[in-house]
Amino acid sequence: MPTIIHARYTLRGGAAVEDLAIAVDGDAIVDAGTSAELFARYPGADRVGGDDFILVPAFTNAHDHGRGVGTLALEVPDNFLELWLGRLAHLPSIPPYLAALYSGLKLLGSGVTAVAHSHNPSSWSELPDEIPEALRGYAEAGIRVAMHPPIVDQNQLVYAERELFLDMLPPELRRRAGDGNAIDFSVDNYFALLEDLYINFHDSERHRAHIQASPAGGQWCSDELIIRACEWARARHSRVQVHMLETRYQRIYAHKTWGVSFIRHLEDIGALGDWLTLAHMVWVEDDDIELLAERGVGVAHNISSNLRLRSGIAPIAMMAAAGVSVGIGLDGQTLDDDQDFLREMRLAWTIGNQSGMAATDLDAETVWRMGTGVAADITFGADVLLGELEVGGLADLILLDLAAIAGRWAPASYPPRELLPAFLLRRGQRDHVRHVMVGGEWVLRDGKHAHVDLRDVEREIWQRVAFAARSQPSRLDAYLREFYRRWDDGELPMPRR
């Protein structure tokens, strides 16, 4: 006998529908109709919900790093990305199982049932051991994961013109920086690991875990590596996710290196396609947006992270209007470190609507799709039926507390149905998430996890975190800032076409 879930309103495709109930059997939605219709068809079924709730598809976090704890709490303050990355190596080590478990629990409390995890290894030699442990943590939390083991093979010190940068340094720093922080993990070993993980963990039936390729960033990966990653993923009906155009200096790097935009270069080497998701895309060039839409490339938008690291604001309204599949990700860097997905959608919606009467509008319904169906498509693939409350789809859903969202002042008739998507975006927050279902199982009831106590996990993490000496700014920071400032000024030479 199925479970019937019903609410005063249901969001479908970003729009609100009154009195639409669904029936869940196993891990899927098997029927839909009015409450009265489903109650009559399944007279003995369990019923969950009522007029005090809003039923919405569960959220997919299209890009994250699963650190569990925000970097500021671990003594790495926000900064420009190019300076901030160097200090991540000094983060206190949290066991990957605990970090993923805690990250998954926090996401579920925010209504997120699926996450794209871009792994940050504590050391490259430990990567083969860390990925299975992170997968175990997410599985215990009860959240779906698209796992992205990373790889880089170039430009780890600076994006380009390494010798020019080294010439700026005093002799002592030049000697220390000369190796460029090279990693001891070959590309061949990476693809061997990826294949082993795919064989042992990729779940193409219930979609609890997907293994995907992740050249960590376009500027850090050779063309050969990116092409090989795309070929690997396409042969296995998997996907590729790459950090791309997060800062202006990554856009300048492309023009310095190839004399064309990063996206045009990816097109030239055959890397653009519906298997690819690009995270951030703050500095995408307007002329390339239509090409992204034509090739079916996904974009994972991370508004909080982009603001905190002073990267800029991605033109998501333009991309969405052009038909680019834009999903929302938290990046583990939300404005107040709480992984609140509703707040992240609110921020994306508010800042995505730029000033000027000629600006492209971004409506609430589009933002809802960015956090649900579109985010699921660019994370797991459009053939995985997540993010929509449709018959035949996987039963990942949320019941939100309508009364708590409306507040005491609102009359019973408020908000009108047509304003509900905007109303929820403007007022909703993680505290309003009451019940969460993943694959037909209630993992959160009345805001509490069905199997794991979040407070116990928090205590274990803080007992095991070993803080080293307080993280200090790198002695390279001032030189890195001056080096990239010259890129702003155009003082470094551009290549001949």
SSE inventory with pairings:
Blueprint: E1 3-12, E2 15-18, E3 21-25, E4 28-33, H1 35-41, E5 46-57, E6 59-64, H2 81-88, H3 96-109, E7 112-118, H4 127-141, E8 144-148, E9 150-151, H5 162-168, H6 171-177, H7 187-201, E10 209-211, E11 214-215, H8 223-235, E12 240-244, H9 248-258, H10 262-268, E13 276-280, H11 286-295, E14 298-301, H12 303-308, H13 316-322, E15 325-328, H14 341-352, H15 364-371, H16 373-380, E16 397-401, H17 402-406, H18 420-427, E17 433-438, E18 441-445, E19 448-449, H19 454-464, H20 477-489
Parallel strand pairs: 1-5, 6-7, 7-8, 8-10, 9-11, 12-13, 13-14, 14-15
Antiparallel strand pairs: 1-2, 1-3, 3-4, 5-16, 16-17, 17-18, 18-19
Helix pairs in contact: 3-4, 3-19, 14-15, 14-18, 15-16
